[in-house]
Amino acid sequence: xxxxxxxxxxxxxxxxxxxxxxxxxxxxxxxxxxxxxxxxxxxxxxxxxxxxxxxxxxxxxxxxxxxxxxxxxxxxxxxxxxxxxxxxxxxxxxxxxxxxxxxxxxxxxxxxxxxxxxxxxxxxxxxxxxxxxxxxxxxxxxxxxxxxxxxxxxxxxxxxxxxxxxxxxxxxxxxxxxxxxxxxxxxxxxxxxxxxxxxxxxxxxxxxxxxxxxxxxxxxxxxxxxxxxxxxxxxxxxxxxxxxxxxxxxxxxxxxxxxxxxxxxxxxxxxxxxxxxxxxxxxxxxxxxxxxxxxxxxxxxxxxxxxxxxxxxxxxxxxxxxxxxxxxxxxxxxxxxxxxxxxxxxxxxxxxxxxxxxxxxxxxxxxxxxxxxxxxxxxxxxxxxxxxxxx
Length: 391
Description:
Elements: E1 3-8, H1 14-26, E2 33-38, H2 45-61, H3 63-72, H4 78-92, H5 97-105, E3 110-113, H6 116-127, E4 135-138, E5 155-158, H7 161-169, E6 177-179, H8 194-200, E7 209-213, H9 219-229, E8 236-241, H10 246-251, E9 261-266, H11 272-278, E10 281-284, H12 288-296, E11 301-304, H13 310-320, E12 324-327, H14 333-342, H15 344-357, H16 362-375
């Protein structure tokens, strides 16, 4: 029975969500065994704690410095970027000895990486003849930073044709590029009607619904946005999802329904997808997975407070394709919402654009291609850039 290893790192929830979606997709093949592993579970705590701390402190406390580091380390020249990645891998390797032993001592027929750190280790192992399995990379950001690129990768699975075009320009062999979308939960493939989910969750069907996913946002900024949105002259409901952010719920405690706009405050819920289906508009950060899930449901977005680097790039692509609006000032969110609610034709256009670039079946497509390669070693047909931004 062929065995596949999927490696991620627990830096944010996006990578683990992508890994789980892929595992679920491979379940359609009963003769394939799949195992997912957090690379940090097989790493020195020093590496895990250091990388996590650097990411969180720079992106949250010194975002401008993080932007400089992130954008400055994105190298156009393929040879230079691969050399840089080999240097990063050499530095990281002493802290990943347990992961290296795990890979060498466990029999897998293919390895899939949904984050850069384990992929870099595989590059070194392959160069030294310590692994012979095909090594695939699933890019979980809308644009691929050069740290995703390594020699010896047998296939890249990309969010969009735009990503494929950029990597081709950088010198990656186009036959290695598969435009599939970012893997999202398979239940997003299931059709849901707005009427059904509104009835199930006691949401209004006769007025617009705006959902703000605020768990990862600054509570003070969310309160400013919500306090203005409930003053909207439009009849509707504003749903604010705080997730695990209890401070946000406390900050919103004194806010109640406006004259026309109702307010519903939620904590940690298990029906995010239902809310996306019910919503006429979603307000969110620009994580690769959340934007992919919203696009897969063809729901327009207002993107706010993007982390510097990859989230800003994700937001740029969504905005450029017309499926959303990117705003930097929280005070601009209420006017933008009011404008869109008063312009249904513009909201319809944004839905149409989201439908063009959303990929609910990404995980299934990736699984199909990899299983096809495992069963048939000869070259497979490749999806490369086409005339549409994402297909």
